[in-house]
Structure formats: C-alpha cells, structure tokens
Amino acid sequence: MECKLAVSMMHDYLDDDLPDQQKRELKEHLISCPDCRVKFKELEQTDMLMFSLMHNSPVASDELAHRIMNSLPIAKKDRRFISWIRSHPALTAASLFLVVMLLSSVTFWNQDGQLVVKGSDLDQVVIKGDTVIVPSGKTITGNLTVENGKAQVYGDVNGNVTVIDGTLYQASTAHISGQVKSIDQAVSWLWYKVTNMFSDVAYR
C-alpha cells in the first residue's frame, strides 16, 4: 500500500467509515511504515482533542461574562450638535439649503463676469458696452439692477437702483425715489441674493 493511500484511509478510519478489509490493510501498513505511524498518531490526537472540545465545552461563569461585557467599548454619547440637529430638523434643512445656495452663489460670483441688467422698463435705458444709462428725461418705473457693469443715471427711477460688482454714477439731474445700493463684496452680494430670494417667495 502506498503512503498517500494510507493517509487518505486514516481519516476514514478515525471516522469509523472504513470497511473491515481496508482496516486490516491499513493496520498492516502502519506496522511496516514508521512515517505513517507518526502521521496516524498525530491525526488520532487531533481527532481526540476536537472530540473533547465539542462535547466538553466549558460554560462561562457569570463573573467571566460580566468581565467580558465590561471590557467591551462603551457606545459614545451623541454629540451636542447631533442631538440639536435631531431636535430641530426644519431649521437644519433650511440651514443646509442656505449653505448650498451661498456656495453656488460664490461660484457664480467668481466665474460670472457678464453684464446683467434687470428691471421693468428696460426699453427706457441705453446700453453701451458694459455701461447702462438712464437718459435725462426718461423715467423707469420699478427697480433697476445692474450686475458686472456701470450704471449712469441722468433721468428718474421710481424704485431702487442696485449695482453689483460695478460703479454707479448719479447725475445732479437724476431722481431716484428708492434706495441706492452699490455692492462690491461677495458677502454683501450673497446677502442681497438671499434677501431677494426670500422676498420673491414672500410675494408669490
């Protein structure tokens, strides 16, 4: 009998699945082969150890279980801001919305250099390059907003005049009934955008 076949038969022998004839052949081989005898002893000891562990597993005492439970890491308490967020979900959502809007606005502030003119009576204004002119004798009813350009007011504006990232010139002949705002900083511009957004929502 070859040693490889003998080793494969050892497992079946230890599991008591080997036929009688093969048991005899294996025993004869173990008598004549010292290496296989050593291998069989090792397998036999391993098998006995596994049997002992499976059938005589020790039961943990209450003290041991208590020590194990105490050694486990304690769950961290919720931080204050997390509990605050959970307590104020509406305010949290509104804050996140504002942050997203502000970040988007900063991007546009940095990238958008194109002239933008907003108002109700834009047919009364003259646009030359990046300059928006309200001619003398002309009247604009409503607000006028100029972004990324120059505003020159010689006539009348029945509303507010806002210049964002630009310059405003108001002639002595000009009459502006509302507020005059010149916004040159990103923070002020963002505040203007946010207040206008809420104003638009309020009037809808």
From TrEMBL:
| Domain Putative zinc-finger residue range list | 3-37
Where are the bilayer-spanning segments?
A: 89-109
Alphabetically sorted, this entry's keywords are: Membrane, Transmembrane, Transmembrane helix
InterPro entries hit by this protein: Anti_sigma_zinc_sf, Znf_put
**Family as reported in the entry's similarity comment:** Belongs to the zinc-associated anti-sigma factor (ZAS) superfamily. Anti-sigma-W factor family.
UniProt protein name: Anti-sigma-W factor RsiW
Organism expressing this protein natively: Paenibacillus wynnii
Q: What is the lineage of its organism?
A: Bacteria, Bacillati, Bacillota, Bacilli, Bacillales
